[in-house]
């Protein structure tokens, strides 16, 4: 079998005019950081990287040691390459500026360094999610305002899944492509070309312990799925909830389904649970590029005009027919 590495894939994309040398470099540097995070995640207790860091992040959540390590790896890896104007991280309150002694480039990089961090200490899959925007023209250091662009303006998005194998899933707006880390060689190999979300599905992912807080359209939709063969859907549905968005979305990308973190009474004040810029937008781009759909239950995620860097939103994504049904139930109510 001809083994195509991530580097070769990106160079071929560049030759075909689908990416630029600057974006190629950016993705390669993110992939290098992902390899370093993967090494740390896989060492676990042997490297003393489990447990709490003893600090809170901007969201007021206790940071795990690996949250802090992954964040540092991504910031440091991406500072020097000359392809970025600035970065923003779920773990950092303010925009991260490029140190003055490095050249600057035209892109903005946003990331959730370690998604699903409640799973770290129990040795269950976690991930990294990233999104790339263009820095709007203008002088001076990028501000929060520069980042507040709708998801449809993303030039690339991706995630890494640190599971039994480490995978990198990527889109530059021309389909979704998956790579698997060859740990001995230290390179990502192109293993999953043009991934698509099957339209027909019998699987759903939601934190069912929040059922009593859900809004009526979500209650209705989930009740219909749970009614199985004898209910209005006429078939049985299965439920899975890893509680790592990356792992739950990856399952949907592989075998279809719907993932929901809807608005509920518990997260209403915050606007939702998941973050628009670091989680919802990049995952929405990947799912749409794979033929699926992504809404808040009411509107397309990638059409939202962000108002804050750390904004939270409800998320409904996956197989298009299911997402459309959930959205219809919301709009009817
Ligand atoms: P994190 O970025 O702090 O890890 O939080 C996001 C995670 C998602 O990966 C996952 O879908 C959700 O939070 C799990 O929430 P819950 O604790 O309700 O299961
Ligand atoms: Mg997260």
TrEMBL record:
Which reaction(s) does its UniProt entry say it catalyses?
Answer: beta-D-fructose 1,6-bisphosphate + H2O = beta-D-fructose 6-phosphate + phosphate
| Species | Aromatoleum tolulyticum
In short, the EC number is 3.1.3.11
Instruction: Indicate which residues the UniProt annotation says bind Mg(2+) 1.
Output: 90, 112, 114
Describe, as the record does, how this protein assembles with itself and its partners. Answer: Homotetramer.
The organism's taxonomic lineage, starting at the top: Bacteria, Pseudomonadati, Pseudomonadota, Betaproteobacteria, Rhodocyclales
- The protein's name is Fructose-1,6-bisphosphatase class 1
Give me the residues that bind Mg(2+) 2, please.
112, 115, 279
Similarity annotation? Belongs to the FBPase class 1 family.
What positions does the entry give for substrate binding?
A: 115-118, 207, 273
């Amino acid at each position: 079998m001809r083994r195509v590495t991530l580097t070769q894939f990106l160079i071929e994309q560049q030759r075909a005019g689908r990416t630029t040398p600057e974006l190629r470099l950016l993705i390669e540097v993110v992939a290098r950081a992902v390899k370093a995070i993967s090494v740390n995640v896989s060492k676990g207790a042997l490297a003393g990287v489990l447990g709490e860091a003893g600090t809170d992040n901007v969201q007021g959540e206790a940071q795990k040691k690996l949250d802090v390590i992954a964040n540092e790896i991504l910031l440091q890896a991406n500072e020097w390459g000359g392809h970025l104007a600035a970065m923003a991280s779920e773990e950092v309150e303010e925009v991260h500026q490029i140190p003055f002694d490095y050249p600057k480039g035209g892109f903005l990089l946003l990331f959730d360094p370690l998604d699903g961090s409640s799973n770290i200490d129990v040795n269950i899959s976690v991930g990294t999610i990233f999104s790339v925007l263009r820095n709007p023209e203008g002088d001076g250091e990028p501000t929060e305002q520069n980042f507040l662009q709708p998801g449809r303006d993303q030039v690339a998005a991706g995630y890494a899944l640190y599971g039994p194998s480490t995978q990198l899933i990527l889109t530059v707006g021309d389909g979704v492509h998956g790579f698997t880390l060859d740990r001995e060689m230290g390179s990502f190999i192109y293993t999953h070309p043009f991934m698509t979300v099957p339209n027909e599905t019998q699987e759903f992912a939601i934190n069912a312990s929040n059922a009593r807080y859900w809004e009526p359209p979500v209650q209705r939709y989930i009740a219909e799925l749970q009614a199985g063969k004898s209910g209005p859907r006429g078939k049985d549905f299965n439920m899975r909830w890893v509680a790592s968005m990356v792992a739950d979305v990856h399952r949907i990308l592989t075998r279809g389904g719907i993932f929901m973190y809807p608005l509920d009474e518990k997260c209403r004040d915050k606007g939702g649970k998941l973050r628009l810029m670091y989680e919802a937008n990049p995952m929405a781009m990947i799912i749409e590029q794979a033929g699926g759909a992504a809404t808040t239950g009411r509107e397309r995620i990638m059409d939202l005009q962000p108002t804050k860097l750390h904004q939270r939103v409800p998320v409904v994504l996956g197989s298009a027919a299911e997402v459309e049904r959930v959205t219809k139930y919301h709009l009817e109510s």
